[in-house]
Each structure stands twice: as C-alpha cells, then as structure tokens.
Design a protein that fits this description.
Blueprint lengths: L6 H8 L15 H13 L12 E4 L2 H21 L4 H9 L4 E4 H11 L15 H22 L18 H9 L8 H12 L7 H12 L3 H5 L11 H17 L3 H23 L3 H9 L14 H25 L4 H22 L3
Parallel strand pairs: 1-2
Length: 358
C-alpha cells in the first residue's frame, strides 16, 4: 500500500528552483520526506538528478546510514520497474560514493585534504565518546574550581575553604543545580545546560536576554502592578466558575429551602469571583484573595442528586480559591518574588560567564 503524504510533505518533495527550509518536529517524517524528495529528483523523467552532485548532511551516523539504505531500496524498486534505465543503474552504482554523511564527517573532509595548512598531523582523528568523557570531566572539574575561586569574596586572615562559599554567586548557582550542596552531579548539570543552550536560536546570548528581562521586572512595584492578561489567572477558568454560580443562584429562585440554606454562601462566592475576575495585577489579585472568607453552608435535608453534585463542585471551587490561588500561586510577597527574580538574573549572568569559557 502506497504511503499517504500530507500536503506539506508533498510541497517539500516537489518544490524546485528555490531555496527550501523545512521545519518539523521529531517523528514527523522528515527523513522519509527527504528521502522521497531525493528519489523523485533522481527519477525525474524530464530532468533527472545525479546523486554524485548532491550533498546530503544529517546529524547522526544512524540517520546517514538509514538515508543511504532507503535511497538504495528506492533505486532498486525503480530499476525493477524500468530495467532498461541506464541512468537509474548509474545512480545505484554511484550511491556508495555519494556525499551522505554527518555534519562532522563533512567538516572533516577539507581538513583531511588540507591538514598541513590547518596545522594538524596527518593522523588526526575525531575522538570517540570513551576518550572524550574523562577529558571533558577533567576540564569541567578544573573550570568549576576556577570559578569557585573567581567569585569568592576577598580572602581574609583565618578564612577556611567554606569562606569561599559565603556570598559566592557561582556557589549559589551550583546549589540551585544540585541537591543538598552535593557537587558530584554538578559537571553533568553544567554541561547539560551548556549543550541545551546551544540549541536555542540565540545560543548563549539567551542567558543575557533572560537576565535583562528578569532585572527589568524585578522591582517590587513593577512586578506587583504589572498587568495580568485576561487569559491568565482570571480568564477562561474563572468564567466557568462564574457560570456555575449564576446557574446555582438562578435555581434558588424556585427552591426556597435551598435558597435559605445555601443562598448567602453562593451569593458571596459569586460576587467574589466577579471581583477576582476584575483584578488586573498580581497585587490586586493577591489583595482580593486575602479578603476571601468562607461562608458555611446551612443544612439542607433531602438533597437531590443534582444538589449533591452542585455542593461537591462548590466545595472544590472553594478549596481551589483557598489552597491553590491564595495559599500557593499568589501567596508570595512581591518583595520576595522580586528578590528571587534578581537572584535568577544573577545566576543567568554567572552561567553565561561560565559557559562562555567552555
């Protein structure tokens, strides 16, 4: 059964005469699409391509081997359908020498050809992971020790090794990255962050950008009174709560017993949700949440299943207001949040300094 391609994949395969950039998530079929594009180019009846004039670069050796294997299989299938095609047979013969390789292999080729001009021995090679691991470990250990000393306060007579950690911004970063002041996982954590940062469009500069944004918003007044988007705390979720309370209050109009037992609590909470929805900053939301007072429901005998379900939902909403919104998400003092933001900004700056030395 022939594979069903999406419109975007077909466009990536068939577009000609221009530079083409394809961005897609992992597992979305990039390798299959690239392979099919190459095959369609090689088997184009009007303007067939030549595999020896193509440069096909991948990230991993496994992907390069998979591409070569898929192209070989597709060429064999095409030859079976057109056994008299000399062009297809030539492409299959040239496939073994085709430039299908990883990025590092592609970069190695001119270095091998011009090793003398590059100041390299003729026998140079890429180290494997087993060789690199201890080397990277020693480099990281030396660099970590250097940075502990670089950010340590000025030494005084009688200082101990622990004095290097007090007021040490690099030590503060390390404490945030490793649990319980243990350094055994620190090299891996720092290296992992470095490698991840390199995948961002801005690279290490991302740290500078984050630090600047954190410092800009770290003034208590700026943070506390910054507008909160309606799509945030008081967006769609609160709208659902508003609808619930309005429906409940409407039902009390025809149920005198329920209105007497529960009406006051539901009316208070409905009004509170309206006030919370109108709050437009962290400080306003926090002030509103701190004013919340739970009203106890009166006794209501002979509750219907609908009333029992409504009571259960209402309990969940009250707990949400108290335990999630008031006691968790909006519990921090703006001064404390601002101090954390300044601390995080400093960590970003120190991490940039460290990463820039790798």
């Amino acid at each position: 059964m022939a594979r069903q391609w999406t419109a975007a994949q077909l466009a990536a395969m068939n577009t000609r005469g221009r530079t083409l950039l394809v961005s897609a998530a992992a597992g979305s079929g990039k390798t299959a699409t690239l392979t099919e594009r190459i095959i369609r180019r090689l088997t184009d009846p009007e303007n067939p391509g030549d595999i020896s004039r193509m440069l096909i670069v991948t990230f991993t050796r496994a992907a390069a081997a998979e591409l070569r294997e898929r192209i070989s299989g597709a060429l064999n299938d095409a030859i079976a359908a057109h056994p008299d095609s000399r062009h297809l047979q030539e492409q299959l013969l040239r496939l073994g020498a085709a430039h299908i390789c990883t990025i590092d292999a592609f970069c190695m080729e001119p270095l091998r050809t011009h090793f003398a001009e590059a100041g390299l021995p003729a026998s140079f090679r890429i180290a494997d992971e087993a060789e690199l691991a201890p080397l990277c470990g020693r480099v990281m250990d030396d660099l970590i020790d250097t940075f502990y000393r670089k950010y340590a306060p000025e030494s005084r007579p009688g200082d101990t090794v622990f004095s290097m950690l007090e007021g040490n911004d690099f030590a503060d970063l390390c404490d945030a990255l490793t649990p319980a002041r243990r350094d055994d996982g620190l090299p891996d954590a720092l290296r992992g962050l470095y490698e991840k940062l390199l995948t961002y469009p801005d690279g290490l500069e991302q740290l500078k950008n984050e630090a600047a944004e954190l410092r800009a918003g770290s003034r208590p007044t700026s943070f506390a009174h910054a507008p909160v988007p309606p799509a945030g705390a008081q967006g769609g979720i609160l709208h659902l709560r508003t609808c619930f309370y309005r429906e409940a209050l409407d039902s009390f109009a025809t149920d005198e017993k329920a209105a007497k037992a529960w009406g006051a609590a539901y009316a208070y909470e409905s009004d509170f949700i309206d006030r919370l929805s109108a709050a437009d900053s962290y400080a306003a939301i926090q002030t509103c949440l701190r004013s919340f007072e739970q009203v106890k429901l009166g006794a209501l005998r002979g509750q219907t299943p609908e009333q029992e379900a409504r009571k259960e939902r209402r309990t969940g909403y009250v707990d949400e207001i108290k335990k999630s919104l008031r006691d968790k998400w909006f519990s921090a003092d703006p001064e404390a949040v601002a101090a954390d933001m300044r601390r995080m900004a400093r960590m970003c700056e120190v991490l940039y300094d460290f990463s820039d030395c790798l």
